[in-house]
Amino acid sequence: MISAEQNDFITRVGPGTPAGALLRRYWQPIALVEELEEKRPVRAVRLMGQDFVLFRDEKGELGLLDRDCPHRGADLAFGRLEDGGLRCPFHGWLFDVKGTCLETPAEPAGSKLCTRIKQSAYPVVEKSGIIFAYIGEGEPPAFPAFDCFVAPDTHVFAFKGLFECNWLQALEVGIDPAHASYLHRFFQDESTEASYGKQFRGASNDSDMPITKVLREFDRPDIAVESADYGLRLTSLRKLSEESTHVRVTNVVFPQAFVIPMSSEMTISQWHVPVDDTHCYWYAIFTSFTGPVNKQQMRDQRLELYELPDYTSRKNKRNNYGYNIDEQLNETYTGMGNDINVHDQWAIESQGPIQDRTREHLGTTDKGIIAYRRLLVSAIEATQAGQPAPMLINADQAAAFSGPPSIDGVSPSDRTATYCKDADRKRREQSSWAAARLTD
Amino acid sequence: MPTIHFVLKDGNTRSVDAPIGQSVMEAAILNNVRGIDAECGGCASCATCHVYVDPAYFERLPEPDDMERELLEGVAAERRPTSRLSCQIALVAELDGLVIHVPATQA
């Protein structure tokens, strides 16, 4: 429970807001690489209440500019991609990826107007299928050498989807280990053979027990939250018997991502990125520790729910998320189908456009959320005071990061303390690309 | 409406008028008084709305129940004889002028 003022303080991220100032100190996902693979590689994008145009010029260089033409404010997202840049259709002004004005063709011959015009441009980089942008001041931080950024392109797959609510409540579902036993409960287990690319449908590591069965039958996890150099590590233990305990380790990467296990072979690194205060995109990188990812299959699975070009969910509040009474009675906890993304989407969108946290009552299982909010508030206050914040790292520091280990498996009950480390090590040793980074 | 004076960590005082029946915790949260976290929202399952009640008012309060007493064992800041959970103090007319000291930390 927090005051209305404090709720605004941690949720609102438009230009000039305290939390917006914090999030602008980090690289933010702004599009999938696949969004610029169409015939005309130009996209209007919105990030934290600001509008931009993202494009790839004829040489393949990426550019991110303010969306309003500096001449008279027309929309550059409808620009002509030609002559080494993006040309405004209103009067033909031409800008390159750095925002330099190359031509103002209607002006008299010999005009110097162009030399005095500069459109704001922002750094963009491609990483593992996602285009990241930096819209803050000064130099951006380095990218930590996490698995999702160092795995070869063949072993990563990226996707995204829109949530019609504030980014923080979306993040707060991902760092809540208790909800999976309820929100994502399936009354029957599918064959784990058919689980490829689906979260929770595989068998837990070192066992033949489907994760769905673990979650359903052991619904009172013992949760521990620890600080980590990248944010927080959450360990959830579900005691299966005297001999064996289910261990699930998930991570919060400050400021807005989590890294969690999807199956024994893949992890999910997921950002919750504010479009504005009442919409956000989830961006995920799926990282395989075994063979190459079957990108076509992963993409096709997700396109069953998400509609292009804006990656909007076909199941949403306007059709009650596909809610079906008989299904809720007999098959799933929510009655909203088998795709767990829909369950999460319902949970967080139903909290309202911006959850009113003056009306909440947090319990013991919410300790990850509490710990994260403390980190967030202290980083926002540090930013206001001109102080450092977590994960604003340089290249040397970035190289020292790895993982973070994210494991879902069954451990001997007397070895849960070391299970994550051991299982993560084993997975790396057997992985072509991850083995190369092991130091001892 | 009774007035509550919150003495903050930095020594400043915030005075808040709150309706009878509201808890001291609710009055603090609704008025954005910093230093009272109240994570559980008043269902007596955390101890993050811990406060020190000024001795002049302490004796006027009903005794803490078992649940509150147990949670007071685990407060993050120093436990004092005047320690209470502010979610368990309901405002009555006799508490007008109540002075509440906010502890150094709740975590």
Description of the structure:
The complex is a heterodimer of chains A (440) and B (107). Chain A has 440 residues and is of the alpha+beta class. Chain A folds into two domains: 41-123, Rieske [2Fe-2S] iron-sulphur domain (Rieske Iron-sulfur Protein), CATH 2.102.10; 147-435, no CATH class. Chain A is built from twelve helices and 20 strands. Chain A has helices at 4-11, 18-23, 147-150, 167-174, 211-217, 295-303, 325-330, 340-349, 367-384, 395-399, 416-429, 432-435; strands at 28-32, 42-47, 50-56, 62-66, 80-82, 85-87, 94-95, 101-103, 124-127, 130-133, 156-163, 222-228, 231-239, 244-253, 257-261, 266-276, 279-288, 306-307, 312-313, 407-412. In chain A, strands 11, 12, 13, 14, 15, 16, 17 and 20 form an eight-stranded antiparallel β-sheet that branches. In chain A, strands 5-6-7-8 form a four-stranded antiparallel β-sheet, with no helix packed on it. In chain A, strand 6 and strand 7 (94-95) form a beta hairpin. Chain A is globular. With 107 residues, chain B is an alpha+beta fold. Chain B has a single domain (3-101), classed as Beta-grasp domain (Ubiquitin-like (UB roll)). Chain B is built from three helices and five strands; from the N terminus they run E-E-H-E-H-H-E-E. In chain B, strands 2-1-5-3-4 form a five-stranded mixed β-sheet. The longest helix of chain B is centred in the first third of the chain and has 7 residues, at 24-30. Chain B is globular. The termini of chain B are far apart. The mean pLDDT of chain B is 93. The A-B interface holds A 1-6, 358-364, 366, 370, 374 and B 29-33, 37-43, 45-46, 107. Chain B: One of its GO terms (molecular function) is 2 iron, 2 sulfur cluster binding. Chain B: Its cofactor is [2Fe-2S] cluster. Chain B: It holds the Pfam family Fer2. Chain B: Keywords: 2Fe-2S, Iron, Iron-sulfur, Metal-binding. Chain B: This is Ferredoxin.
